[in-house]
Every structure is written in C-alpha cells, then in structure tokens.
Amino acid sequence: MPPPTSGLFVDPEFPPCVSSLVRGGGTPLSPLCDRITWLRPQEIFASPHLFPENSTLGLGKQGILGDCWFICACFALHKSNKLLHQVFPPGQYTWKDPEYTGRFTCRFWRFGRWVDVTIDDCLPCLGQKLCFSHCQDQGAFWLPLLEKAYAKLHGSYESLWAGQVVDALVDLTGGLVERWSVEDAEDNVRKKMLCRMLDLKDRCAISCSVLHSKEGSGHLGEFHAFTITDIQHGVTKYGQELILLRVHNPWGRSCWSGAWGKNSDKWSLMDKSDSAKFLNDLKDGEFWVENEEFLQEFNEVTMAFPVDEMDYIQSIWTDCPLLHTQQLHGSWVKGQTAGGSRNNVSFADNPKFWLVVKELSEVYLALMQRPQSEISADCTHRSQLRSVISKSYPLYAIGLHVWKVFIGNFKFLNE
C-alpha cells in the first residue's frame, strides 16, 4: 500500500504552484501551466523508489522542459556512485520507510562550496505522468527530484530552459570541465580530441551538442545536447577498422538516420556476432555514429575532468593529478576595479592575480561569475535567494589575459 499523502512536508519556499514553474514567461512552458498538476511519487507509481535496481535503466529522459543540458550532465552521476551520493546524500527516508515525510535534500556546488537544497516531493505532471525529466525505469525518482532541487536553486523550472552542459557539470561535480569546439578545430586537433575521448570514456562524463544542424540533418535538432555513453573499436569483414561512438538523446527516442543507424545496411559489413554486440544493448534514444560522421554533425564536445581514488582532479590531457587548487575572488567595483576592456585606459585597474611558476607545471584556469542576485543573498536562506534570483540579472563578459613577466622586474611584498 502506498504511503499517505496528507500531512507530508510542503516546501513553503518552492511550493507546488505556478510561481515555481515560471518566473516571467517567454518560454513554451507558460501556456501549459494551467494544465500541470502536482503529484507525489506514490500517486504516480505503485511502488516508487529512488534508484533503479538495473543501473542501465537510470538514463534520463527529457520531458517538455528544455533542459537537455542538465539531463546530459546528470550522466556524470549515473557513472559514479561517489558523485551520486555527494549530490544525493544517502540515508534519506523514502516512500517505504515509516519515517518518510515527503522531504528530500540535494547538494550542488556553488562558487566554491557545496550548498544543500531541500524540497518536497510534489512533482509537476500532465495527467498522471511526469511532464519533466524521468528515468527509463519509470518507478525511479532520483532524477525528477534532483531536477526539482536544481530548479529551486535557479528560482523556477522555467529558469532551466536552455543552458550549457558545462555549467551543470560544474554544479554537479564541483570539478573542472572543458568544452571543445569541433567544427572550428583543425584535423590534427580533432584526432587528438577523439583519442582523449577514447582513453577517458570510462572515467568521465562526455557530452556533445548540435548548435545548428547541417543541411539535410535536421533530425538532430538545434541547440540540443546529447550524452556520449560509450566509444568502441570495430572491424568490418574486410578488415576496415572503425571507431564508433554511442550517443544518447535525452528525448529518449532515436533521431539518427546516418550511416550506422540502427536499421542501416552498414551493419551487414560486420560479422553478425560483432554487430550484435553493438546493437543488442542499445537503450531508448541511443544510436551509434562513426567518428568521421560524428565530427561532421556535432559542433561541440564537453568533458568533465576525472577524479582519482585520492579525490584529486586529473588532467584530461596528461592524466596527472592536479595536486594544488586555489580559489581567488575578485569583483568589479565602479571607480576602483571596473577597468573595462583593453580599449580603455583604465584596463590596468581590473582585478589581477599573480601566478608564480617555479618549475615545469600544468596549470588550469577556470572562471566563474556569480550573478548579482547571489552576491546580495545568503545561499543558506533559500526564500531570500529565490526572491532575488527570480529577477533578471545580466552576466558580464569576462576577459582573461595571461602575461609572462620576468621576475626581476617585480618585487613581491612577502619577499
């Protein structure tokens, strides 16, 4: 018997109502608000559970919300139980527990620290079905709950409409993420990218995006993100070597009719036993793409840096652990540190930081910009944060310039 729904926790800061769905309109979500109802998991599924017993059914499907970028980033959690438990702390009471109250807590990395976000488990539905994200195992609810917590962090579900995989990966992993432009890269750089993807496929999350479909290839959509779930070598009957990438579309349906699509004649070039290894375990929305076709059709690749057993972030280029990290905070203050671009005489007034390199080293510089709304709000007070983050605060273009200077020309204060 499913647990009762009366007397359960209802989040006053992110209540099950229209204000949590939209913040200003302007997206296709707004006209649907009157039709959306809020149901708890036990009202949707007879025996709800957080995680699927079969991990392969944990792949996410996108609903009517345009947050493919977030769904793709969640694949990082699907691949790492350690990360999943960091973001979704274990030990929380669920629907089978007598102590269940309808309350769940998730964690996100925000500007140098992990922030707890507590929600109720009332989820947006159309009819009796979830209308936003869900797992392939329809009884597993970790993903729609995580999506709700992320929506609360941003002020509304509508705020998740259109984003960057790189941003969601940082929020979910607390690590480093690198984005590569495939279409602008030279052939030798593309080959290097592909080699690194092949080496790291089992250790980190990799996503790819289509910004604009090539002529005749509209089936991939535009401004749409995908997940690369595997990369494998293959050999045809005639000895031709192939590199095939398995790509997952968060829409949950096949959208690929390329050379190595599921029903393509190309598979007859392989022995049946070999082609079966590629085709038999495809999940909903997955398809195989040959590497040359991949480089032609997709515009960007986003890769999260792996983390070793000692919790050190590893370089995606050398596999070396990055043993030292430093967070530095700066701000643009009018008349003091807001120097503008290099076209301005005040450019030198911008925030500056020294990096002293005493031996051959690998250095990564990652920039984040805190929205003005979060600067003035304590992240521990979610109602205050939500009231200010729901307003429109622009982000400013960040310039990053690194200059090599000779130490003899400068004297540091601590010397």
List the helices and strands and how they pair.
Blueprint: H1 18-21, E1 37-39, H2 41-44, E2 60-61, H3 68-73, H4 75-79, H5 81-87, E3 103-110, E4 113-120, E5 123-126, E6 129-130, E7 134-135, H6 142-154, H7 165-173, E8 177-181, H8 187-200, E9 206-210, E10 224-235, E11 241-248, H9 272-279, E12 286-290, H10 291-297, E13 300-304, H11 372-375, H12 382-389
Antiparallel strand pairs: 1-5, 2-7, 3-4, 5-6, 8-13, 9-10, 9-13, 10-11, 11-12
Task: Please state how the strands of the largest beta sheet are arranged side by side.
Answer: 8-13-9-10-11-12
Shape, principal axes of CA atoms: globular
The percent range for strand residues is 15-25%
- The percentage helix is 10-25%
Low-confidence stretches: 375-392
Outline the biggest β-sheet.
6 strands, antiparallel
Structural class: alpha+beta
- How many helical elements? 12
Query: What gap, in angstroms, lies between the N and C termini?
Result: 71 Å
Mean pLDDT: 87
Order of helices and strands: HEHEHHHEEEEEHHEHEEEHEHEHH
Radius of gyration using CA atoms only: 23 Å
Find the count of extended strands (DSSP E, 2+ residues). Answer: 13
Features of the shown structure:
globular, 12 helices, Cathepsin B, Chain A
Summarize it.
The protein has 415 residues and is of the alpha+beta class.
Describe it:
- The chain is α+β, with helices and mostly antiparallel strands and 415 residues long.
- The protein is built from 12 helices and 13 strands.
- Among the domains are: 18-164, no CATH class; 177-304, Cysteine proteinases (Cathepsin B, Chain A, Alpha-Beta Complex).
- Helix content is 21%, strand content 17%.
- It is globular, with a radius of gyration of 23 Å.
- Residues 375-392 have low confidence and may be disordered.
- It comes from Pyxicephalus adspersus (African bullfrog).
- The active site is at residues 68, 224, 249.
- GO terms for molecular function: calcium-dependent cysteine-type endopeptidase activity.
- Residues 8-303 form the Calpain catalytic domain.
